[in-house]
Amino acid sequence: MARISVSSEAEVVDAVRAAREAVRTLEIVGHGTKRGFGRPIECDDVLDLSGLSGILKYEPDEMVITALAGTPVAEIEAALAEKNQRLGFEPADWGPLYGAPRHSATIGGVLAADANGSAAIRYGRCRDHLLGFRAVNGFGEAYKAGGRVVKNVTGFDLPKLMCGAMGTLGPLMEVILRAFPKAEATSVVVVRGLDDDEGLALIRRIWSAHLQATALLLLPKRLALRFPEFPAVGLGKVDGSTALVRLDGSAATLSTKHDLLNELVTDLLVSPVENGDGLVAKAASVVSFGDTLEDVWLVHVPPTAASQVIANVEGDWIVDWVGARIWIRDTPGVDAGWPYLARELGGSAVLVRASAETRRRIPPFTPESPVRAELTRRVKAAFDPLRLFNPGRMWDGV
To answer: How far apart are CA 171 and CA 48, in angstroms?
Structure first.
């Protein structure tokens, strides 16, 4: 197996053309923080995109930033922060789940894995923020899609297709992302003393109250106690689950939002949290699951169905996105049936972390219906007819 390191578009094109001519498959990697995500693959060579790094253009007035795909997310976020801006989908740092250092993920890897944070409930997922890109297809052709404007109606919406494709459609080289202004002030509070159903109902009630929360999570007490930020608010003295609520706005707006929040949580214990953004990021990126050997599942269901999911969880769980996303830590190697339950509830499930043997035996991604599977195969064939890129990473034959 050869490792092909590239640092320019021309080198990527040459590498793909050589692979096409020799019919050699390519595992596409950046910093490799999520190589344990998806079905195990055995490719002939590795195409290393980490050399494609750097911010090409940043237009703060237009709130658009263009970067090479191998650029660390931390570098992009730092550049935006200097202009008091942010990425709306709040990229989640999943690296620690696989033993990688924190803050080492690349923007291309985040987009390929569809790794969204808690703020996606307010601003949308990464597929809503990738305005355009440059990539190479399986014919060895460089191409671009989308552009620098939000309302781009020319042709197919390929940026959405690339998000969550796990590199199976080809290597991203350059991405154009929409940015958002950072709020003047941010407040994170915890609401304690809830049973699970009460907690789920509460975060849905807060969401319906139009407080424009940028994070609404629920954690069981046994898990919340593992976060060092919590003892300062006396969580250990309270039974039940804990809701995390993050509110943004001006100082005056936050005061009004706090008043409304207090009306919604009458008779419950509400406490502010220091370093609230850090706490939300840790919870949403399931940092607490990173130091264990259990399997980790990510279940997406309608928020009203979240209680049916967590009622079946024997291990730890974290509810995010008002209940639409549930992280589950489960017994290693056991097929707990999460994809089947999620499908019955109108959602899907992904095995985010497990041993290679388990990921060979249990499909990490929910099997598609026959009609959708055929559509997926056709899309793969259009972009990568020889199946050169990450073959089988998501489903067999894709």
So the answer is: 10
